[in-house]
Each structure stands twice: as C-alpha cells, then as structure tokens.
Amino acid sequence: MAFDNESFEEEENFAEMFAASEKQQETSRIVEGEVVEIQADENRALVGVGDKLEGIISLDEIRDENGELKFNTGDKIKVMVMGYYNERPKISYKKVLEQEKTIEFIDAHKDDYEDLVVEGIITKKNRGGYVVEADAVSFFMPRSLAAFKDTDDVVGRKIKAQVVKIDPAENSIILSRRKLFNEERKKKKEIIDQLMAEDVIVEGVIKKITSYGMFVDVGGVDGLVHYNEISYKGPVNPSKLYKEGDVVTVKAISYDKDKRHLSLSIKAVQPDPWAEVESELDEGDTITVTVSNIEAYGVFVDLGNDIEGFLHISEITWNKNVKNPNDYLEVGQEIDVEVIEINSKTHKLRVSLKRLLPKPFDEFMKKYNEGDVVTGTVTSLTDFGAFVRIDGVEGLLHNQDISWDKNTKAKDVLKSGDEVEVKIAKINEDEQKISLNRKTLLESPIDKFATTHKVNSVVKGTIRDIKDFGVFVSLEDGVDALIRDEDLAPLVKEELEPGQEIEAAIANIDTRRDRIRLSVKKLDYIKNQEMLEEINDTESHSLGDLIKDKFK
C-alpha cells in the first residue's frame, strides 16, 4: 500500500523502530507475580516474579480512578518483565495494561484501518520517531511521517494522526500525521473546488466570531465571512447578529491559493436590495426611515429593506451649533427625510432631515426688516466680533459696531449666553447674512460733544496718531477729531509727535457720520481776527477822545 508518494518498502522497518523505541529485549515477557510488600512511604511495591530479587513497581501504577490500591500484600498480579537493572528485574503493571489494550485495538481494527484517525498525547521522542498514547493504547509515529521539525518540542502535545499500518505479529500500530494532513488538504481542495466551480449555496456553522468577521465551517473547511459580507447595510458587528454554533447560509466568493484563505458571503445569498433602490428612488424623494444607530458625526437610518442611509450631523437641523445628534433624535424613532445622494457603485445613500424643515432665514425675512431693534443671544465670540442668534438665525455683530469706543472689542463686554439688544443693520438675502449693530443704540460721544461745542469753538487735545493725511487728536470724553495736513499751518507736521498737546478750532461737527474736524489754520485766522478787532476798538476809542477834547 502506498500513500503520499511514499511506500513502506522505502521507509524504515516501522515495527523494528517501535520495538527499539520501547527497548524491548527478547527477555521481555508477561508473568504472574505476587505482591510481597507495600512500602507506602516510598510509594512502591515489591513484587516477586520467580527470580532471586523482587521487582519494584510504583504504587501509582496500581491505583484505581479513586486513588485506591488495586492490590495488597499476597495478591497475585500480572507484570511485564522488561529486563534487569543491577540484577533486579525491571517490571511494569502499566505495560501489561497497555499491551492488552493494544492487542484489543489491533484485533478490532486490523482488517479495516485505512480511514482510522486517533487523537492522543506524544509521551516519548527517540531517534526513530515518537510514541503516542491514546486511551491506554501505545502507537508509534516514525519521524518521517510526523511532519515536525527536529527542533520542535512536542512531548506532551496532543495530536491527531491517521493509522497507516497494523502489525498483529509485532503488536505494533503505526501512525502518520503527514498522511492525515494530506488527506485533509485533499478533501478541503475538493470541497473548495466544488464551491468555487459550481457557485453553490451551502449551510455552515459559525465556529468563531471576531471584530472583523466570522469563521464558518462548510463541510470541514473554514472560511471567513468578513463583516462587509454580512449585510447590504455595510460593515456590521457580527456579535450583535449571531453567536458561535449558529447555522448560516453562505456562498463562496473567492479563494487565495497562496494564503489558503476561503472568503464566504452571507449577503451574496440574499437578493440585492440596491437593485430596488436604484429603480424606485431618486434624489429629492421623501422617504420614511427608522433611526438605527447614532454616532457623534451623524445618524444611520434603516430603510426597512436591509439598506441603511446616512444622515450627517450637518443635515439634521438648520442650527449650525449641533453638538450631539442625541439632542435631536433617538434610536427607533421614525422620521421623514429627503434623499440627497444615491451612489449605486459604492452602495451609499445620504439623506437630509433639515431640508424638510422650514428654513430659519426665510422665517426671519418674513418677520424682521433692516432697522429693527431686537434682542438676541450671544452664541460665540471671535477675534473680529460676536455671533448673535435671533429666532434661529445668527447675525454678526462686528467689533467696530460694539461700542463708540474704537478700542472696545466684543470679548471685552460680552460672553456666550448673554442677551444683547442690537439693531439689524443689513440683511444680505443672497448670501443669507445678517449684520448687526449695538453702538447705534448707545449715546454717541460726538452727539454729547455737539451739545456743548460749536463750529469755530477753540479746543485743546492730545495728539493720538499721525497719519500720511493728517493728525488724530483725542479730545474730552473719548472723542476723536482729525486735523488734515492742509489745516495744520502754521504748525510744521514733522515737528509734531504723539502725546503732544495741541490747540485748534472746530471746523466741522458731523453727528450723522460721527466725525469732527479741527483746524489750526482756522484757529490762527480767528486769533488774527480777534486781534484786529481789538486794535480797531482801541483806535476808535482814541479818536473819539480827541474829538471830545477839541469841542471842549
């Protein structure tokens, strides 16, 4: 009989190797002895076997399942004499049992063993091979049939191997682990070839569930159902749908010969629901769905036919400050959504909830107009201003419109959550933007200044900044004024510096545009006029006095 391109004629004499592994000599024999003495302290018994000295046997060999001794002093016992050590016979009760079990096994299977597979423990390794024990039966597995590396530490390992020879004359049973491997590989190949060639649908048993899929046994071959191949919904957690031992219907979809990986699919057995979606749905359609899962970035919705759509967090509401979808939706809730994208190639479906809701900006336009004074809530602060929500719509309150004080910023006077009264300065309907103003609701420093000052009034201030076109001057109560270059004479601009006190006349007060212009030139003119008037008054007075004196 030959197998795996091997033959018994080309191999070693397995029976001889088995005999060598047991180091049995011609003197090995089974005899009936008598228990002479039980030495419990040393865990041994002395057994007389008809020789000059008694043999020694471990008490562990003659204990039953409960740990009780099967024999006592004076009892007859069958032992195997395997040789001598220092003239004392080497005996074993266990070997007798093993031989009896081995003989029973040989008698039961000697005529039909070609497909017989045993599972046992490797108890010994020698130059010729390995001794395997299973159910008290000893087997021998030659090194050439073991499929182990020489460096492998296999003693004590549990293995499966196929019986390849039984020799009743030698009481030997030969195993081959390699033969079993080849048979299993051949069987698996036949199963895989059949699955791949015939495109068949089969039932399998789930052996193991992992985070990335399930291993399923189909007729003795393990295949992987990746989590992408469980449902048309997309990647799913298999542990939420199945448990180990469940029977599932699968179909083979690929086989990697190099890696020996069989890929299976559950969804390939089922009708493709996307065919129905592509024929029944269009972008813009409104459908009723059920919330199936909520994540921080959005919501998955079930269409009811093993297809899931995705509702991004930005498509839940018109409110741009959504922190968590759980604040708006809950698992199991039915909602109407609009289909906004169908990708038949990637099997992706995107939907929107907010597109079925009234647009807050449209509602705002119906209710408010430019110039209206309203109260809103500060939602966020930035370096350039504050966003204020008014009836679900946000408007921008820019820093320059916070206060009449140009150095004041939104962060200085407001915080998130504050209610603030503002004026709707501008509504950009095309870009859906709203500009707000707060300072127009406050008293203008220039308005206040204008109540106590008139054009041509002389004022004193401090130079705040010098520009290419003129000089900015800080007046009382935080009021700024501008002296243009042409109004600086007779002063020399290059001789001026910030912080310097300066005197000028008011040339113009524009309360509508919140601007004040000063003029040094005008002040100089006014002073010259006042001096001239004073001189004229003096001269007129002197001439009158001369005339009076003459008439006297």
TrEMBL record:
Protein origin, superkingdom: Bacteria
Keywords annotated in UniProt: Ribonucleoprotein, Ribosomal protein
GO MF terms, alphabetically ordered: mRNA binding; structural constituent of ribosome
SUPFAM superfamilies xref list: Nucleic acid-binding proteins
Protein's UniProt keywords contain Ubl conjugation: no
Domain S1 motif: 28-96, 115-178, 199-267, 284-354, 371-439, 456-521
Database matches in SMART domains: S1
Record flagged with keyword Ribonucleoprotein: yes
A Gene Ontology cellular-component term: cytosolic small ribosomal subunit
One GO biological process term: translation
CDD domains hit by this protein: S1_RPS1_repeat_ec2_hs2
InterPro entries: NA-bd_OB-fold, Ribos_protein_bS1-like, Ribosomal_protein_S1-like, S1_domain
Membership in a protein family: Belongs to the bacterial ribosomal protein bS1 family.
UniProt name for this protein: SSU ribosomal protein S1P
Originating species: Sulfurimonas autotrophica (strain ATCC BAA-671 / DSM 16294 / JCM 11897 / OK10)
